[in-house]
């Protein structure tokens, strides 16, 4: 699997030739100004909730690439009304896709569309790939005991966790969450984009190391193999 970071909480995972884009917020993000949105290809776009900093580029990319939206039912319906094909599910549900299975799991957050209308409940995703890897994309969650269920259900290879604090977990809570979900390999997200989310990278990684975790903070545009 290859994973490319496009800033904030946006990643592109290439899994067995299928391109899976998470929470695209690129054009409005000044930190991602060098990312060529027009060059991003996707087969599926997974959206964790309806906030603008997670769906801003979803319509544009989906219409250009033909990617299907995969999200909570209300979000799939919202994009369906714009002529975009999608798969809507709900909390606790599993969706089988060409690259593997996507399990919709709880996230402790809020969710509304940019116009303030209801966007269903926020979720995270546990993805069990056909290649044999399992990972957790947390979306925007605070620390919640529901995360402990993930360790009961799955053996994770890595987890993508928000670490910016203020609107989500900070680093300290994210490390507790990592214990609860059973992950030692972590990739940070939802940090630095806005002033309240700016973190000390070295301090965050040192705290993670002291807790027995490997926290990777990717540069925007960086691609890694997992």
UniProtKB/TrEMBL annotation:
Q: Which InterPro entries match?
A: Metallo-B-lactamas, RibonucZ/Hydroxyglut_hydro, UPF0173, UPF0173_UPF0282_UlaG_hydrolase
SMART domains for the chain: Lactamase_B
Q: Keywords in alphabetical order, please.
A: Hydrolase
Tell me the Pfam families matching this sequence: Lactamase_B_2
Specify the Metallo-beta-lactamase domain's residue ranges: 7-190
Recorded GO molecular functions are: hydrolase activity
UniProt record similarity statement: Belongs to the UPF0173 family.
PANTHER family (UniProt xref): UPF0173 METAL-DEPENDENT HYDROLASE MJ1163, UPF0173 METAL-DEPENDENT HYDROLASE MJ1163-RELATED
The name on file for this protein is: UPF0173 metal-dependent hydrolase FNT36_10190
Q: What is the lineage of its organism?
A: Bacteria, Pseudomonadati, Bacteroidota, Cytophagia, Cytophagales
């Amino acid at each position: 699997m290859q994973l490319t970071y496009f800033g904030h909480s946006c990643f592109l995972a290439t899994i067995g030739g299928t391109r899976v884009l998470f929470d695209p917020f690129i054009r409005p993000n000044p930190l991602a100004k060098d990312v060529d949105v027009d060059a991003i290809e996707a087969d599926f776009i997974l959206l964790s909730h309806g906030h603008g900093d997670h769906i801003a580029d979803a319509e544009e990319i989906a219409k250009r690439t033909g990617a299907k939206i995969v999200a909570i039912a209300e979000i799939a319906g919202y994009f369906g009304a714009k002529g975009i094909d999608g798969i809507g599910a709900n909390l606790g549900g599993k969706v089988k896709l060409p690259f593997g299975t996507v399990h919709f799991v709880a996230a402790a957050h809020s969710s509304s569309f940019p116009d303030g209308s209801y966007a269903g409940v926020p979720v995270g995703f546990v993805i069990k790939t056909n290649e044999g890897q399992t990972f957790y994309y947390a979306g925007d969650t605070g620390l919640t005991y529901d995360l402990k269920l993930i360790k009961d259900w799955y053996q994770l290879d890595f987890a993508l966790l928000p670490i910016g604090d203020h609107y989500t977990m900070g680093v300290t809570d994210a490390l507790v969450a990592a214990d609860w979900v059973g992950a030692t390999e972590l990739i940070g997200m939802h940090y630095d984009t806005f002033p309240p989310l700016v973190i000390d990278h070295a301090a965050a990684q040192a705290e993670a190391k002291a807790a027995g975790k490997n926290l990777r903070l990717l540069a925007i545009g960086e691609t890694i193999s997992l």
